[in-house]
Amino acid sequence: MQKRIDLDNVQHPKAYKAMLALEGYMAQASISRTLRHLIKIRASYINGCAFCIDMHAKEAIHDGESTQRIFLISAWREARKFFTEEEQVVMTMTEEITLIHQHGLSDETYANALRFFNEDQIAEIIMGIITINAWNRIAISTHKQIES
Fold it and tell me: Nearest CA to 133 among 5, 3, 7, 23?
């Protein structure tokens, strides 16, 4: 894959800093690190962003996530017993928002999320999904390379 522009260091560092500020906001969110990792990895699987899958899987493992659960995120519906109901709701939200062109966040999924999360937490989940989708698009569009 041919290297492309470098948004973070060369072409548009101010825009990249704005993305980093959004990521900083998400790091302070009240939702758990586990949920944040699931959002990042699931959206990155859907979008086919190898750079982000690699980075966020490594971060999740560093934070104590099992490799088995990381491997199963791509097929979580068939491996439900490995994920809590809250995690399943978050992954459903991640899919519906990432694939927004299909139908977006459904009323059913939103109502299900309210069983586990308050409105502030739902807002954080939505912002987390939006954030990783933006990062995926940056990494894929610029051919961001995986580091060994």
Answer: 23
